[in-house]
Write a structure and sequence with these properties.
Number of strands: 12
CATH architecture of the largest domain: 3-Layer(aba) Sandwich
Radius of gyration: 22 Å
Number of domains: 2
Order of helices and strands: EEHHHHEHEHEHEEHEHEHEHHEHEHHH
Number of helices: 16
CATH class of the largest domain: Alpha Beta
Shape: globular
Oligomer: single chain
Strand order of the largest sheet: 9-8-7-10-11-12
Strand content: 5-15%
Distance between the termini: 20 Å
């Protein structure tokens, strides 16, 4: 496994399923960070950053300004990990020379991984599989300015056409990728490992119904406003109070979450726990009464994916409240597994929360109705079995030079 040693200050605490002796880590040149500091300095001198930083600005409007104000829209081709490409490429050549490698698999994001996989494939002849966990060109969360948008579209099509196989993590993304590249795409979803939950605490019995969200949050593409409006209505009707109900957010320190909760008058019910480790994230999910997913409305590309957190949620057997469009991939997944409910309006959220509050008052918990046999299909063991089959197919179909 070829990976980066340290990037963007992220903690290295995710589980690794191969021996550490087989993990090769390389340096990373984060020129993005230094250039972005320069851009921010220039912008501040022109008094442009006030549009984004002032608390009286709608966070959605601020988010829409970012493509014009950050380096991600001016020099990012294809992503922040571009500075890793030369280090990974050189180390990858060394690995190919020293070891008997049968198949190369690159997984993105970041898309830089695909550029590395492609380059190593072209020089070695070893068959290469391109795995998508997130879209590349069509990812609205990492959009480019118009001048670079067309180039990135061409770049993805040029690179991926040499992959012997394309894989992704959801049926919705498969459809988009298949149409974009004009070829078949296989699905290997994310999964959960039951061993990750050994020794995890049971839900807290302090009398509070706690709903927890883990992962990144965004004022445009993962907007909690609809949920906050429903909670504010329940508080106003005295159905809930800070003593018996709480919303917890973990995964990103976002001051606008607190400001938004103040705007809705529910600041006493909302906690922004900031960035936590992988193990702490699992613990926060496990001690919750129910768990939360927030998906995109009105943007088809993002609603076609399945958030990784969903698989942790069903592995922990916590009821899922998904604020998402009906007939989205999340909706289909939850209806298939019976693991939760999708709400696409304030009234729907209020109704499900009132039902849960009633259950919790009577029994101290909320019933999890997930289908065990269907949930078992999404264990990492089952999904790894699928990937192993695809790796064998790639090796058989694409014999390569020694």
């Amino acid at each position: 496994m070829l990976t980066v040693d340290k990037i963007f200050g992220d903690p290295r605490d995710f589980p690794i399923d191969v021996p550490e002796s087989n993990v090769i880590r390389t340096k990373f040149l984060d020129f993005w960070k230094y250039y972005n500091k320069l851009v921010k300095l220039l912008i501040s001198r022109r008094n442009l950053t006030s549009n984004v930083q002032h608390t009286n600005v709608n966070p959605k409007e601020a988010r829409e300004l970012q493509p014009r104000l950050t380096i991600s829209s001016t020099t990012r081709i294809p992503d922040r990990a571009t500075g890793w490409i030369p280090f990974a490429f050189v180390k990858g050549l060394m690995i190919l020379h020293q070891k008997r490698i049968h198949v190369i698999l690159s997984t993105s994001g970041p898309p830089s991984n695909h550029i590395i996989g492609w380059a190593l494939h072209k020089l070695s002849g070893v068959p290469w599989i391109a795995d998508y966990r997130d879209p590349w060109y069509s990812n609205v969360l990492t959009r480019q300015i118009k001048e670079l948008d067309h180039f990135e579209k061409w770049l993805e099509m040029f690179i991926i056409r040499d992959a012997c196989l394309i894989t992704t993590v959801s049926d919705g993304t498969r459809g988009n990728l298949s149409k974009f590249h004009g070829r078949n795409v296989e699905v290997v979803t994310n999964g959960f490992d039951p061993d990750d939950y050994i020794g995890i605490l049971s839900p807290d019995r302090n009398g509070q119904l706690i709903i927890t969200y883990t992962g990144s949050i965004d004022p445009v593409y993962r907007d909690p406003s609809m949920l906050f409006e429903a909670v504010a209505s329940l508080k106003k009707r005295k159905v809930i109070s800070s003593g018996d109900f709480g919303l917890r957010f973990y995964g990103s320190a976002e001051p606008w979450i607190t400001r938004l909760s103040v705007d809705y008058g529910i600041e006493d019910l909302v906690v922004d726990g900031g960035i936590v480790s992988r193990s702490k994230s699992i613990e926060c999910q496990a001690t919750a009464t129910a768990v939360l997913v927030i998906d995109t409305f009105g943007t088809k590309d993002t609603s076609e994916n399945l958030p990784t957190k969903l698989f942790d949620y069903i592995g922990l057997k916590r009821p899922v409240l998904a604020v998402a469009p009906h007939d989205s991939q999340i909706d289909k997944f939850l209806r298939f597994t019976y693991a939760g409910t999708v709400c696409s309006s304030v009234s729907e959220i209020e109704n499900i929360l009132e039902d849960w509050i009633s259950q919790f008052e009577n029994s101290g918990k909320i019933t999890f109705d997930g289908n065990p046999d269907r949930i078992k299909m999404y264990t990492r063991e089952m999904q790894t079995e699928k990937m192993a089959t695809l790796l064998n197919r790639a090796l058989t179909a694409s014999p390569h030079r020694p």
